[in-house]
C-alpha cells in the first residue's frame, strides 16, 4: 500500500499470486480513499492482517507547470519554433507569449545558444532543436532519479519533493478471501432447522452504547418563553430574583400604592403568615415617603386621604405577584451612585 502525503490517495500494488506488499510489481486497477491511519485490530476482532510496517521515502514529483512541459514541450522550444528565418522583434514575441513566459523562454534559449539578438530583433541560430527539458521531465515523471539535474529543475520551480509512505501488510491468522457474516441472535428458524449448532456467533461488546431512551420533551410554550428570555439576556438585560416567595405587605401592596383598605388585601384573597407574622427590615426613609403619598398625595397625586398604618405594612404574606420584586429592584437601583445597564 502506498500513500502520498500531497495527493492523499491509496494505491494497491500486488500480483495475482502474491500477498499485498509495497514491493509487488503490478498495480491493481482500483483505488480507494486515503485512510487516516492503519491500526492493529482490537482484541475482540479477528486478526485479518498483521500490524503494518511503515516505509518512508522522499521522491521528486513534477509541478503542474512541469507536467504541461512534459506533455507539450518546454517554453524555450516553442519560442524558437515561433521565430521565422528573418527573425522577430521582441515586442511581437512578447505579445504572442506574454512578458513572463517570453522572459523565461528567452533566458533558457539564449543559455542553449539557440537564439541571438541584433538591434531589438531576435534571430535563430539553429535550424532544429532537441527538447532536452521535455525528455528530462519525462524521466523524472517515470520515477527516474537524476540528481545532477535536479538543481536546475528546482531553480525553475518545476519539481517539488514529496514524502511517500509505504505500508507493508501480510496475511494474519484469520485472513479469508470472503468475509463471513457472524450471527448475532438465535432465531426460531435456527432452532427448528438445528443449524444453530454450526453457527459462529459474534462476541458481545459490553462497552457498546445502548439505544437512546425516548423521554419527555419541552412544552411548546416553555420553549417560546425560553427563546424570548434568551433574546433579552443577549441584549444585556438581567433577571430579577423571584425566589422570595414570602414578602411584606409594604413591598407587595404599599410600595405599589394600593390602599390599605383595598379588598384584595383581605385574608380571603391573601395568605398572611403566622410565624413570622411581621418584618422589621423596611427602609425608613422610603417608607416615610410612601406614607405621605398614601395620606396626602404628592408627585401630582391627591393621595387617598386616610390614616396610613405601619403595622399593616409590616405584615408578612405569600407574595401575590412578581410586581413586588420590581418595586424592590427599582428601589435598590435608585440607591446606586451610578446606574448603567449591563453590556
TrEMBL record:
<dbReference type="GO" id="GO:0004826">
    <property type="term" value="F:phenylalanine-tRNA ligase activity"/>
</dbReference>
<dbReference type="GO" id="GO:0000049">
    <property type="term" value="F:tRNA binding"/>
</dbReference>
<dbReference type="InterPro" id="IPR040725">
    <property type="entry name" value="PheRS_DBD3"/>
</dbReference>
<dbReference type="InterPro" id="IPR002319">
    <property type="entry name" value="Phenylalanyl-tRNA_Synthase"/>
</dbReference>
<dbReference type="Pfam" id="PF01409">
    <property type="entry name" value="tRNA-synt_2d"/>
</dbReference>
<dbReference type="GO" id="GO:0005524">
    <property type="term" value="F:ATP binding"/>
</dbReference>
<keyword id="KW-0436">Ligase</keyword>
<protein>
    <recommendedName>
        <fullName>Phenylalanyl-tRNA synthetase domain-containing protein</fullName>
    </recommendedName>
</protein>
<feature type="region of interest" description="Disordered">
    <location>
        <begin position="1"/>
        <end position="29"/>
    </location>
</feature>
<keyword id="KW-0547">Nucleotide-binding</keyword>
<feature type="domain" description="Phenylalanyl-tRNA synthetase">
    <location>
        <begin position="204"/>
        <end position="334"/>
    </location>
</feature>
<keyword id="KW-0030">Aminoacyl-tRNA synthetase</keyword>
<feature type="domain" description="PheRS DNA binding">
    <location>
        <begin position="74"/>
        <end position="128"/>
    </location>
</feature>
<feature type="compositionally biased region" description="Basic residues">
    <location>
        <begin position="1"/>
        <end position="11"/>
    </location>
</feature>
<dbReference type="GO" id="GO:0005829">
    <property type="term" value="C:cytosol"/>
</dbReference>
<dbReference type="GO" id="GO:0009328">
    <property type="term" value="C:phenylalanine-tRNA ligase complex"/>
</dbReference>
<feature type="compositionally biased region" description="Low complexity">
    <location>
        <begin position="12"/>
        <end position="29"/>
    </location>
</feature>
<dbReference type="InterPro" id="IPR045864">
    <property type="entry name" value="aa-tRNA-synth_II/BPL/LPL"/>
</dbReference>
<dbReference type="Pfam" id="PF18553">
    <property type="entry name" value="PheRS_DBD3"/>
</dbReference>
<dbReference type="GO" id="GO:0006432">
    <property type="term" value="P:phenylalanyl-tRNA aminoacylation"/>
</dbReference>
<keyword id="KW-0648">Protein biosynthesis</keyword>
<keyword id="KW-0067">ATP-binding</keyword>
Amino acid at each position: 500500500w502506498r500513500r502520498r502525503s500531497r495527493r492523499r490517495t491509496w494505491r494497491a500494488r500486488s500480483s495475482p499470486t502474491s500477498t499485498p506488499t509495497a514491493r509487488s510489481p503490478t498495480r491493481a486497477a482500483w483505488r480507494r480513499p486515503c485512510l487516516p491511519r492503519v491500526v492493529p485490530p482490537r482484541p475482540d476482532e479477528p486478526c485479518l492482517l498483521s500490524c503494518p510496517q511503515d516505509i518512508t521515502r522522499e521522491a521528486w514529483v513534477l509541478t503542474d507547470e512541469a507536467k504541461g512541459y512534459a506533455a507539450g514541450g518546454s517554453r524555450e522550444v516553442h519560442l524558437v519554433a515561433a521565430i521565422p528565418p528573418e527573425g522577430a522583434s521582441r515586442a511581437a514575441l512578447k505579445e504572442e507569449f506574454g512578458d513572463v513566459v517570453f522572459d523565461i523562454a528567452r533566458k533558457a534559449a539564449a543559455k542553449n545558444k539557440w537564439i541571438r539578438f541584433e538591434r531589438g530583433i531576435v534571430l535563430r541560430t539553429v535550424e532544429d532543436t532537441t527538447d532536452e527539458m521535455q525528455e528530462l521531465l519525462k524521466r523524472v515523471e517515470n520515477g527516474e532519479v537524476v540528481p545532477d539535474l535536479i538543481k536546475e529543475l528546482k531553480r525553475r520551480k518545476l519539481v517539488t519533493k514529496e514524502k511517500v509512505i509505504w505500508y507493508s501488510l501480510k496475511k494474519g491468522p484469520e485472513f479469508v478471501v470472503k468475509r463471513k457474516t457472524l450471527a448475532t441472535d438465535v432465531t426460531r428458524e435456527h432452532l427448528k432447522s438445528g443449524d444453530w449448532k454450526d453457527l459462529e456467533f459474534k462476541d458481545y461488546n459490553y462497552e457498546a452504547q445502548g439505544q437512546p431512551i425516548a423521554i419527555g420533551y419541552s412544552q411548546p410554550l416553555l420553549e417560546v418563553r425560553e427563546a424570548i428570555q434568551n433574546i433579552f439576556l443577549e441584549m444585556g438585560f438581567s433577571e430579577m430574583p423571584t425566589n422570595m416567595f414570602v414578602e411584606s405587605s409594604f413591598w407587595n401592596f404599599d410600595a405599589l400604592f394600593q390602599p390599605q383598605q383595598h379588598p384584595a388585601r383581605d385574608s380571603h384573597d391573601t395568605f398572611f403568615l403566622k410565624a413570622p407574622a411581621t418584618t422589621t427590615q423596611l427602609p425608613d426613609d422610603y417608607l416615610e415617603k410612601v406614607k405621605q403619598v398614601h395620606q396626602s398625595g404628592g408627585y401630582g397625586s391627591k393621595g387617598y386621604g386616610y390614616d396610613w398604618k405601619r403595622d399593616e405594612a409590616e405584615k408578612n404574606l405569600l407574595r401575590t405577584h412578581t410586581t413586588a420584586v420590581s418595586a424592590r429592584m427599582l428601589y435598590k437601583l435608585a440607591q446606586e451612585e451610578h446606574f448603567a445597564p449591563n453590556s
